[in-house]
Amino acid sequence: MRSVAKSTSVFDLFGSAPKAIIRGSDPIPLQWGSISVQLSRSLGTLLGEVERPGDFHATGTIDMHPPRIQVEGVGTLSLPLLASQAEALVARAEQAPYGRGTETLVDTGVRRTWQIDGARVLISGKAWAQDLETMVARAKSGLGVNGAVSAELYKLLVYDTGSFFISHRDSEKAPGMFATLVVVPPSEHRGGELLVRHRGREVRLDLRRDEPSEVAFAAFYADCLHEVLPVVSGYRLALIYNLIRTGEDQPLGPPDYDREHQWAVKLLQAWGTPSVGESAEPTLTKLIYPLEHAYTPAEIGFNRLKGADAAAAGLLVGAAREADCDLYLALVSIEESGWAEHTGGGYWGRHDEDDFEVGEVDESRRIVETWRHPDGSHPDLGPLPFELEELSPPGAFDDLEPDELEFQEATGNEGASFDRLYQRAALVVWPRTHRAAVLSQGGLEVSVPFLGELVRQWREAGADPQAPLREEAHVLAERIRIDWPDADWDRRKASADGAAAAYLRHLTALGDLAEIDAFAGGPIVSGAYGQNDNLALVEALASLAPERAHRLIHDIIAGNAQTNPVACADLLARAANQVIERRTGTAENLRPAAEALVRALPGPRATQSPVDAYRYLSESTGSEPTDAMVANLLSGLEHIDPDLARQAFEHLLKHPDRYDIDRVLLPAALTLHAGETTRALPSAQALRGLTLAHLRRRIAEPLEPPEDWRRPAQVTCACANCQELSRFLADPTRPEWAFRAAQRHRDHLEASVRTDRCDLDLVIERRGSPHTLRCTKNQASYLRRVAQREGDLAHLAQLGAQLDGVPET
Asked: What domain of life (predicted)?
């Protein structure tokens, strides 16, 4: 999968002896111009040259076949362990001692747990020996041990609530013992995590499993410091085994990666700290180190890495922590598609993969996803793109074989094509100083939620304005704003999906006034704006000085009213209400914004294309007037300047084609009349009067069912068939018409009936050729008028009026 020149050491790449590095000499400066190749080659070579596979600890989970655990004086245990049996175990156990020098002491301030000697415990069962062998084999692999290893049961431990064991080292209890294996069978408890430390590194292992068919285990070298944290509740059962290496005079110790560790730390520190005079913008944001073994998405995890992968991860975990870098384990995927060539094999449309060859790649997608943290958590970072230059060492994927390759035969005018997928697990690292740039690469779906998490952590930690977390959140927020999408579609999506509103809420919670100002005055003013943003936007702007907030509202409306008057009217109304409710100045300060909105109100509709594409696009982007826009417009303007409200109302009346009375003005009047604070506004009263007059005129129109078969005959199309349709509709004696014609003529006639809403039921009779379209007259127009009359009467009542008499206000 990757090619690492074993004949060239990483230390040779720099021409410096490793002892100089260990003594603490300055790291060799990395030139930003060549960092992409230099750093990726150096780190890749370093990780490929670890002394041997393995780490100071190993851990994992297996699906357990239930064993029979018999304890002298207690009997056979049930799993998960019952509380009654745990109490019986404690009654038969002794207080566990600890060693200090040559002494063996009992002190519950140092160790509080109960032990039963392994000689009093018998574990059997058809598959237990195989399960134990599996755990020992995985422990060997994780610890980097070759040769035969046996496991001898040493103790059975019971930790009841409050039990613990402070940091200590295990003594070598038998010849050849080099490590301890801890097996935690299913038992109901919380707490009791195992902490293991070695040479400044620490892991925290939670060996509790909720699934009763699973058993967790951990192994660590005997000279490692370790402790058991207090059990919060329940009983923790643990089987302690001595791992013994047979056939060797000297037991093994943890792998020594001190030299490589020091170099890795210095490489990463130099990467995260640009030289004096160099740009702080990194040319290489992250590094990806592909692993040797294959791991499925379900298997991927730091505690499941094998051999050399575990060694590389163990080295990099400590180095990344010391160098202030983020480190993750993830799946790296390359998806490619393009055209393929048929090589001539197969017959009668039957082909296999050997009959095709990959041609040229047309589309490619490279992502990193399925993230795992060294602490075992699964951070929701989402997919991040990557470049081939970020692979370490360079060319790591040059000889990569695809995991999936699928060919599609040629169809119609389309030639043969292929899809293929490359996927590998990899270690992904970047300096924390690059974090904002890396997260921004994943788009708003990645960066905005991460910002929210940083803000949450900062507030929970006390919301100190000088805290590093706040500065980190500010840097990320600034990067998000700078990288905000430019394309109209992406901007509309950011608003529709709530990304912009979430970003504004995070800025408000962070109290980042500079970024609120910059985002509102930059991307939002220039069109990255929608109605979904307004609630969060008004709250964010309230953090600024009133004069600045009002200026920004003017700029936002002036910049967006032509394309999105619906959102701008909503913003103006919200801003006016907030000024009134919070008494932050007077609503008259919003006059410039209100004037800008009135000037930009939609006028006569532009000429539409034959297909109503423009209309649908306009409605989706907020430029088509709505009843909510009118209600917000009038109520907001009334609070700011009643004269502007009057001007806006007159504008609505001048353009009835744009502000339809039934679709726009009537629902707006109902909304204003329903509001206690808006009902008495002059423009609301004027709109109410207008719509009441409209309703009364229509209610007064005659409403009788048709007396004969004559129906409305306004057919738009003037072709011969449609003219015949018009004559049929106008005929008072004909209830049906059989239109026998070719399908294209039948389809055209059906389209005319639907477009002009003709009072007809249509049925195709498929006897004979061509088929017949049978048209039967109905009372659809009359029934629509009946429903309209009922709606008009209901709206009349909603507006507080009666059919006759003085309107009620």
From this structure: Bacteria
Q: How many Å apart are CA 469 and CA 475, to the nearest integer?
A: 10
User: With left for phi above 0 and alpha for psi between -120 and 50, is residue 363 left, alpha or beta?
Assistant: beta
Q: Are 559 and 527 in contact (CB under 8 A)?
A: yes
DSSP character at residue 765: E
Q: Is residue 434 a contact partner of residue 428, using CB atoms and an 8 Å limit? A: no
DSSP state of 23: T
Cα–Cα distance for residue pair 756/734, rounded to 1 Å = 20
**pLDDT-based confidence at residue 98 (cuts at 50, 70, 90):** low
Q: Is the peptide bond before 770 cis (omega within 30 degrees of 0)?
A: yes
Lowest model confidence (mean pLDDT) among 173-177, 481-485, 757-761, 785-789: 173-177
CATH class of 57-245: mainly beta
* Whole-angstrom distance, CA of residue 600 vs CA of residue 593: 11
- 101 token code pair: 């020098």
For the segment 244-253, what is each residue's pLDDT rounded down to a tens digit?
Answer: 987 654 445 5
Residue 735 in tokens? 């209830």
Order of strands across the sheet that contains 164-168: 111-112, 164-168, 225-228, 194-198, 201-205
Alpha-carbon distance of 564 to 571, in angstroms, equals 11
- C-alpha 141/C-alpha 605 separation (Å) is 74
CB 501 within 8 A of CB 532: yes
Measured CA to CA, the distance from residue 764 to residue 742 in angstroms comes to 12
Residue 583 neighbours by CB distance under 10 Å: 8
Sheet of 121-124: strand order equals 75-76, 68-71, 121-124
Which spans in 68-201 are helix H? 83-92, 128-143
Structure tokens at 439: 């997260």
How far CA 213 is from CA of 64, 210, 499, in Å, comes to 6, 9, 42
Domain ranges of the chain: 10-40+283-434, 57-245, 720-778
